[in-house]
Every structure is written in C-alpha cells, then in structure tokens.
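so i finally got all the pieces together for this one. its six components total, 1422 residues if u count the protein bits. some of the lines might not be protein, just check the labels. i wanna see the whole assembly predicted at once instead of chain by chain like last time, that was a mess tbh
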Amino acid sequence: MRPSGRAPDEMRPITIETGFTKHAEGSCLISCGDTRVLCTASVEERIPPWLRGKGEGWVTGEYSMLPRATHTRGSREAARGKQSGRTQEIQRLIGRSLRAVVDMKKLGERQITLDCDVIQADGGTRTASISGAWVALRLAVNSLMKDGLITHDPIEKQVAAISCGIYKGTPVLDLDYPEDSDADADANFVLIEGGQIAEVQATAEGATYDEEGLLRLLRLAKIGCDGIFEAQMKATQ
Amino acid sequence: MRPSGRAPDEMRPITIETGFTKHAEGSCLISCGDTRVLCTASVEERIPPWLRGKGEGWVTGEYSMLPRATHTRGSREAARGKQSGRTQEIQRLIGRSLRAVVDMKKLGERQITLDCDVIQADGGTRTASISGAWVALRLAVNSLMKDGLITHDPIEKQVAAISCGIYKGTPVLDLDYPEDSDADADANFVLIEGGQIAEVQATAEGATYDEEGLLRLLRLAKIGCDGIFEAQMKATQ
Amino acid sequence: MRPSGRAPDEMRPITIETGFTKHAEGSCLISCGDTRVLCTASVEERIPPWLRGKGEGWVTGEYSMLPRATHTRGSREAARGKQSGRTQEIQRLIGRSLRAVVDMKKLGERQITLDCDVIQADGGTRTASISGAWVALRLAVNSLMKDGLITHDPIEKQVAAISCGIYKGTPVLDLDYPEDSDADADANFVLIEGGQIAEVQATAEGATYDEEGLLRLLRLAKIGCDGIFEAQMKATQ
Amino acid sequence: MRPSGRAPDEMRPITIETGFTKHAEGSCLISCGDTRVLCTASVEERIPPWLRGKGEGWVTGEYSMLPRATHTRGSREAARGKQSGRTQEIQRLIGRSLRAVVDMKKLGERQITLDCDVIQADGGTRTASISGAWVALRLAVNSLMKDGLITHDPIEKQVAAISCGIYKGTPVLDLDYPEDSDADADANFVLIEGGQIAEVQATAEGATYDEEGLLRLLRLAKIGCDGIFEAQMKATQ
Amino acid sequence: MRPSGRAPDEMRPITIETGFTKHAEGSCLISCGDTRVLCTASVEERIPPWLRGKGEGWVTGEYSMLPRATHTRGSREAARGKQSGRTQEIQRLIGRSLRAVVDMKKLGERQITLDCDVIQADGGTRTASISGAWVALRLAVNSLMKDGLITHDPIEKQVAAISCGIYKGTPVLDLDYPEDSDADADANFVLIEGGQIAEVQATAEGATYDEEGLLRLLRLAKIGCDGIFEAQMKATQ
Amino acid sequence: MRPSGRAPDEMRPITIETGFTKHAEGSCLISCGDTRVLCTASVEERIPPWLRGKGEGWVTGEYSMLPRATHTRGSREAARGKQSGRTQEIQRLIGRSLRAVVDMKKLGERQITLDCDVIQADGGTRTASISGAWVALRLAVNSLMKDGLITHDPIEKQVAAISCGIYKGTPVLDLDYPEDSDADADANFVLIEGGQIAEVQATAEGATYDEEGLLRLLRLAKIGCDGIFEAQMKATQ
C-alpha cells in the first residue's frame, strides 16, 4: 500500500557516517533512505550575551537545505536575504530538542552550534537533522572530555526524532516524500531514550484526527526511535 | 497551587467583543483573562499566484505583538526589518488551523487574511489568536453570504485553541504568563468541534513527559475548547 | 458642506480612555471621531549611546498602523521588512513634538518611548498620536514622580496636534478621511499650551495657498488644540 | 551677528551650472554658498503601475548625500542596506514640490526622476535640491518639446525652496550649517512664482515660536525665493 | 619547502565522484586534496527576463560555504541576511567561466544553474568549484541531449581553474590553506582546453610581482589545468 | 579603427582637480575622458575591531555610481537595500590596491576610507577610482604629516590602474564605453610605480585569449600607468 512497499511500521534504512568533515569538533552524514543530512557540531568558547556570568553553556541549531536537495531547485535563502518561516521553525526545534538532554552547568561557559545541512531530501529532513545532530554533539563532547575541558558528561540521554503520519487512512512510520505530500496527518516526534517525550508536533493536513490516532502515531514513533537510538549508539562507540 | 488560585481544569474568563473595528469585514477583540488580541478578517478578491485558475480561495494568518503588550517593551519587528522565528511560526499555525475548517472551493477565488494583533499579553496569545480569528472569519463569511457573493457556507466547523501544561507536576488548563514561564511542559492544542484534533504542539521545557502526560493535557484541552466553542457561538449569533 | 455636516471650525468628538493596557507605565486609547490610536509610554532605565554621561534623558516615538485600520488592508511593514517613508516621517514628528515640552535634565538618564499604534483610521492619525502620546507620557511621568524616581516635573507644558485643510475652497478644522483625500491643502499643526507653535507642516495638494490661507488654518488649529488641551487635562487629573 | 557676517535677509550667492553631466536629459550643479547639489532629470517612457492607462505622467525625486559631503564621514546608506528616515522624508518633499507645478496630462505617459545628490553640505541641502531639480526638469522638458514628444508645456510655474530660521532671537534667511545647528526654529518653505505656497515645514528646535514669528520667516522666504527664481530663469534661458 | 612537502609544480590529488545527489540533472563531489565541493547543475525551462525572445539560454553560478567548512565556524549568510562581497565575486566568476565555453543558441531557451557548495575548505574552493561545475554541466547537457531536448552539443570546450601563488619567493601550483594564508601573491587562472585563457585574477598580497612572475604562474596553471582536464574527461565518459 | 579615433596605445586625456570638496582631508575629481569620479579620503581615529591593539592602521575603499552617471538611469543601491555584486567587487579591489602601497605601522591606529563616487561613466570607472583614490590618499596623508600626527610617510609608492582590452582583434589601451561593451577581452591592471604588478583581472568576453595576448595587454597597461603616475605627481605637488 505504501509507495515504497514498506510495512506500516517499517523504517527506511539508517546509516550514520561519522567524521564526514575534518574541521568540526563532531560531524556525521546521516542517511534515512534517500534523505541525507550533514550534521556538524562546532564548539565556541563564548556564550550568548544573556547567559554571561551564569556559569552555563548553550546549545543551538541551524538548518538549511542546499538549493538542489529537492526535486526542483529552490532559491538560496542567502540570496533572497532571509530565512523562511519553515527554516526558522526547524532551527528552533533542533535547538530545543538537543537542549532537552544537555546539562548546561556541566557544559560550562561554551556554546555548541549544531549545523544541519540537507544534502538530499526525501521527506523527514528535520527529524533526520535532530537524530544526526545528537551524534555530532556526542562526538564533540567526547572530544572536549578527552581534552579535559569538561570533566562530567553534560549529555544526559540520547534524543532522536521521527515522522509518522496517517497515509490513506493507515498510520505509518517514517514518511518519505511521496507519502508526506499526500498524507492526511503528519506528526514529528522527538523522543528521549527510555520513552519520555521531548516534543510532539502533529498537524492535520487533509483530514483531522482523534486521540486514538495521536496515540497510534506516538507508538509508531517509539518503534522508530528505538531503531535510531541503536544506530546512534553504534556510530559513537 | 496555581499563582492565580484557579483549579487545574479552570479556564480564565473569556469575552469576545465583535465589531471592534469598523473597516474589516469581520473583527473581534478576544480577551482570555488579561490576554487581549484584536482579530480582523479582511476579504480580498484576489488569490496567491500559485492558486490561480483552480476555482479555490485561500485563508491565511498574520500575527504581531504590539511593542508594549508585554511586561517590558519589545522592539518593533518593522523597525528591526524582519519578523522573528516565533512570529512566523505562529502565523503559519494560525493559517493552518483556520484552513482546517474551510472548504476552499465554496469560498471561491478570494483570500481572507486573519490579522491577529496582541494588544496585551498574559500567556496564550497564539491560542487566543486562533479562537478569535475563527470569530472574525465567521463574521466576514456571514457578510459575504448576506451579500450573495457566496452561496454555500465554506466554514465546515468551529476551530478553537488552548494551551495546557505541566506546572509543578500537575497538568493544568490555560496557562497564564507566570505559569507559562515556569512550566515543565507547554502544549498548544488546536481542536475542532466534535473532538477532532487539528494540531498538537507539545514541548518539554524543564522536564520531559510521557504518553500518559500527553493524554491528560489533551483531555484538559477538550474541556477548555468546549468553553471556547460556546463563547464563539454566542458571539456570532 | 462638509461630508460629515460639521461646521468649518467644528472638531470631531474626542475621548481619551486612560489605562487601556496594564503593562505600560502610561497608556491611553484616544478617539478623534472614528480615528482611534493606542498610545503607550514605556520607561527604560537606559539611554541612546550618544547621550551617555550627560545626565540627560530622551523621549522618542514610534508609529504603526494595524494592517486593517484602513478601508482596504495594507501590508504589514514587519512582513515587508521595512518601514515606509511615511511611517518614519510620522515617528520623527511624534518624537520632536513631545521633546519640545520636556526638560531632559529633569527627566534624568532614562528613555521614554511613545508607541502610537493606530487601531482604526479615519484621517488625522498622526495628530491624534501626538495628542494621545502626551497623555501617556504624563501618566508615566506621574508614576515616576510618585515612586520618587524623579523629583522635579520634567514636563513643562501640554502639547497637542490637529490637522486643518482647505476643503472645496473653505478652511476647515480636523479633516476626516473623506475630506483629507479631497482637500486642496492639508496642514498639521503641533501647538503648545499658551499659543506657541512647535511645528507646522502645510502642504498644497490640488491647489497652492497663500499667506492669508496659512494664517486662517493656524487660527483654526488654535481652536482645535484648545479643545484637546482640555480633554488631556481631564483625562490626566 | 550671523557667523558669516551676512545681513538677516541676505542669501548666500547662488550659482547654477547647467549640463554638468552629459547623459541625463537635464542636469545642473547648484551651489548655494558651500552647499553643492548635483541635480539630474531622467526621462523614462514608463510610469508606475497605479497610473497605467490614465494618460498621465509622473514626477518623482530621489536624494542622497555623498558619505563625505559633511564635516565627518557618514556611512553609506547602500552599505547600511536602508535609507534613513531623513532621506525618505526629503525625497518625498522633492517629489511633492515639483509635482505641484507640473500638469501630468500634458507630460503624457512618462516618468521623470529627479536625482539630487549632495556633493558638499553646508546647510539647506533639501531646499537647494528642490531649486536645482526645477532647473533639471525644465531642461529635460525643453528637450522633450524640442524632439516633438511633448506639444504643450507641462511646467506651469517655477518652484523654489529656501530655509529660514530664528537664530539668536532674530529671523534670518538661508541658514548655513553653523546657524542651522544652533537655531531656535528652522523652517523650510517651498514657494511658487507669484507668491503662492507649496509647502511649509517649520519646526521649533530650542524654543517655540508664535504666529508673528512664522509670518516673518515666510516673508524672508519670499525674498529668498525671488532671488532663486531669477537664477533659475537665467540658467535655463 | 611547501608545508605539504609537495614539489612546486605538484597538484594535490583530484577525485571527482559523479551522481553524488539524485535530484540534480548533473552533480559531482570534487575533491582537491582536503577541499571538497558539491557541484550540481539544475536545468530550468525558463530564462532571465532580459533574454526572452532571443532564442538563447543562460548559464549561471551560485556559491556558498557551509558554516563549518572552515577551521572556525563562519556565520551563515542566510542568517546574516546577505551574501558577502567575496561570495558574490566568486559566483560571478563561476558563471562567467562556464559561459565562456557554452554556445547559448545551441542551449536553447533554458537556464542551467551551477550550485557550488563547499563541504570542506582547504584553499582553492573557487577554482575547485569551476572545475567541478563543468562536470555537473556536462552531465546535465548529456541528459538533455539523450532526451532529445538539445540536438547540437552546446558545450564547445572544457574549462578548468587552478590557483597558483608565490610562496616564500617560489612560484607554486595549487595552494592549500596554509600556503594561501601566507603567500606573497595569489592568482586564480581559468583556462580552456587547448591553452586559451578565460580569466586571470592575480593579486599581490605581501609583495608585488612583475611580468616574469605572472608568466611563471600562468605556466604552472597550464600544468595544473591539464591534469584537471584529464580528471574531468575520465569522470564524464 | 577605434570608435574614438584614438591610436591603440593612446589614452584619453586625464585631468585631476584636487580639493574638489572642502570637508574631506583629501579629495579630487579625476576625469579620464568622459569618465569622472569624485574621490575623497576621510581620516578617522578609529580602526576595525580585529585590528585593535596592533599599532596598525587600515585603508579601505567604497564605490558607488550616481543613478544617472550612465546612459540609462540605474536604480539607487540605497533604495534597493543592497549593494550589487559588481559594486562590492570594485570596493574590495580599491581597498586592496591602495593597501598595497601603504605601510600600516607608519599610518598608526587610524583608518582612511577612500570614497569613489562616479559622477559620469564612460568606461573604466573602477580604474579611474583607484588612480584618483591615490591622489586623495596622498593629500590626506600630507595633511596628517603637516599636523604632526604622522612622522614617517606611510605611502611607499604610487599606484594607478588602467583597463586594456582586445577590440576587434587588436589590443588597445584605456577602453571607453563603446569599446568596453564590444571587446573580446577586458583586463584591468593595477600597477605600482617602477613596474611591479599589484593586481591583474583579465576576462575573456567574446573570445578567449592566450599568453601572448595577456602580455601585450600588460605592456599597454604599463604605458598607460606611466601617464597616470605623471598626472598624479603633478596634481599632488
């Protein structure tokens, strides 16, 4: 029934290639099927002005789509002179999601920026960004700890994200582009290892949904994130 | 336990004053406690370029906070030269929420813009905007029908929105500013009369939450939206 | 002869509702006929960089029109990414007019920003803004004096503004929108209690005017401002 | 008494060098004392969208100050990415002033843009711009008439502008920079040959002024503009 | 003598991986040592307004550096709201270089945009962009020809680019970052197969150079480009 | 053969009028045929943040074209809200070229900005800007030395620039606009007195060129710059 022939609770294959670029303190290329995002973690020994003197750090995210990551070329946001509402919404989500698992006191007075640049898009770019950003963050923090700049691990848990949706009446896991553009409802879940929820964004597109529908999507998301947690763990060991 | 002394499932008083401005085809000033938003619906006999020739209309939303709607003055977005990510996120949410209950074919080739300008803020400005925008839209469509420009009512249902959150461990309904700035989780629900969900945005702030927590928030939201549906109905009769 | 049936020297009714919003140190909703402007005064304990260390304060104004304050919806300046020339011209005028009656030494090293947001427009929005801004400023300074932050009243006089014009050959007071869009000349006067002039901006639109015409407009303006001074006084007692 | 030693009703010497640049349809370099402005008139056979099909033309103005026209270098507006409020205010004034003497029907469906670029500033740049722009416009229209593109002269009158002010208690004509920065009141008059007024902008700076003061400034302006009308006439014969 | 131990006329290893992304009509990841640039060619069946109706096509380039392509993170141009002068200079160079080898008549009324996104930077990103863009263009044109949309090959020649410089007094080929930041002169050559020059940009940094120096750099560039021509040919066969 | 009738190695007449504006520390109006550029040097006793505390100064350039400097009016960059890529490219070139002959240590902790504003354009505006900027810089430094603010002359050499090109198959010196728009190759040379090269930018337009062509253009440029050096010397003595 799904265009890809996948079962409703079947994810696309995930691969995480760490160290994809050499300058960043942490980096990976995460692929969820044909969606590929380059995630880098950059450590800077400075913090935003409103945090100064509090002995705390900060984690933030930025997101961009290369112009030809998609089927038809999109114009470059730098050329247009502003970031779209969609881009800003995603950036804010990435930052919030990662901050949910970091102890800012233990991080100390430094900022880590997670840049998520979509090389190729086939649905689920924001969730792949979050899942990959955690890997880049983990690698960067490992390096700070190895160098003795941090003594207690500030990363408390794993965090991962996945999209689910109601496609032709059936709840399905990990929407690809053909499903995403035709779904009745589209939900992004950011989950934390152990089953807690960091964020739910569930939107009715063609048809609305009910409490039961929301729960079924959440349960699919848990299945999906368990798979991602495993891939993250394998990539960072 | 709540700073305001309200019970966990108790909403702030809602009032909706229709016809607050005279030029707009529909308008109201909605007050949810001390949060007050001016909502206007403007009908224009033109549609966005990508809709031309499809025989359909469009509904969109814009949102702004007056500089001194808040405790301390915020800078004016027009002066800064761009809308913040938060503003754009809210605008997109308003538009999506209202479109969820409108049949674009019946609306015909015209656009209705819902402007939500926050006069005074005390938490829940985006949800009050959606609830008030529906009233402005209803009044504007009534006027189009009265003038014979539309023959079949394009508004299929009522839509309303409310925030809920986990405050000091307890799920509570309709967060005001003191609660909002100190909540463990903050969720905005956009619901449709009859119990369907148009949108859920639930974010962990201090602590994460689980499936049970999400459900309890959703149930509070249903109680809240039932009250708003009633106020909307009374205001537009 | 006037569309509204008013006599040439007859103003529209003025009402000033103080305390319209609760967060601002001073606020009012001023109505001049159907023109309604929300004016707030925000006190900030900081001054522009070029004033630092001089022991003086600053008073400045900002102005905006809600998108649907007018007959047809105007685009939002924040969305367009810049303020129009008209907006900036009006903002500068508001600031200059209020500064003309304030002793900056007595104000001390703080800034008061007067935000004038037009809720509904029917001609004369810039002059209503100035007249209302004085009320908001007066209330804010009263509050600073009550709290002992200022010991000598920095407001030396009242200031008010009114538009006059030559309409179908006759000088008339307080143009409303139908007159404004059809006037031969349009003049805005900012006057100070006691008969002094703070600013004159008189523009020929369809036909030019002569010295005699200018004087007749000025005399009408004095009549109008006397009425506004009274309304200001009543509102702030 | 005046820093320059001039009598209160004495203008600075005016020179108008026509044909200062070769590409523009009309151009001049106007010097009022040390203030020097390059004015060009550019004819384009297209009109703004809102005028299409009305058989009318349009006249508009643009203004800029070269970065080092002033005592200390100002930043370039193109580099800052926006025009200041002051620049926009002046541009609007230039356009309005010239339109006051042009019959748009006779001009036909074309636009003339008057660019006023300040090469050197010593007070009165906006008034010199208007006076010089008329010369550039006159030359451009002459050329259109000579080429048979226009048959009836659309320029109905001369227009000129001058600043006056109250300096150390005395009304004086044609403020230079040292006077301008120290004046109690500063007024710009745009006058039309024969004594009519196109625009008055009179602002109290240090002290306010009264009706008598306004009249005395207006009378000085008439003296000044008579001198400018003569110089314009001589330059364009 | 060179930090990398290379001989003065020794290039870094070049690899070109074609088909790096699936949506673009042509794409490759070009690596020149540690410099890696993703080049995509996007075909659009529309042309810039100024070319309409001429029966010709257009080729243009865009360039960007991912924020963490470099040793320290640079801010994102989309977030800053404008492209730097450097970026625009490079974009213009890429477009000019590719247009030098394309017959626009044979291309027909379509536009090909060459996006060059630097994944990792180690000197020579603009020259690698040009060399890689040719490959992406070649692949896209091959695909247009295969689909019968173009009948005569519009690509007349190969074009490639390389940087050379004077490092510690010696002319060297293909500067990497440590050399680039310490060179006395830095030159970028865009050459065409067969020995013709499309563009030379040679800049003295620490010390100036003479005619002899320029010639020696040009001769190194010819050696370098011959190697690149070969790599391009191998990648596109 | 040349549209102007000049010999291939014949420059247009150069005149340099120093002291063209009175506020700048150094200024000149340079004319190369019909190309006229106003160059001013502004001294500021502050340096860019990244130079603080190094005991060095900075020299930078800005460039702009007046809207009607050209055959048809161009839109004003300040009105469009951004500088074009061409403008930024030229600004960077002006700054680099002048810095090539200044000892920043001897200049001391101050910045000199060279503003080059094109009054009238007929080809070669960027090269005229560089040649004129040197004169403005020389005059400003003379004034600093006369005032005892600088003790050792920081200007080590003269720098000048000229364009050459291949026009109808023949290398020619100092392209004017008709030649520039029709040339096969267009090269800008920035040369230093004594024969050294500061910058070469040579671009094939219609046809590519070879090593021999490049050399012939360079030799013409040397002839041209020798003439400019002489004019610069005469103007600043």
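The two ends of chain E are 37 Å apart (CA to CA).
The mean pLDDT of chain E is 95.
anyway lmk what u think
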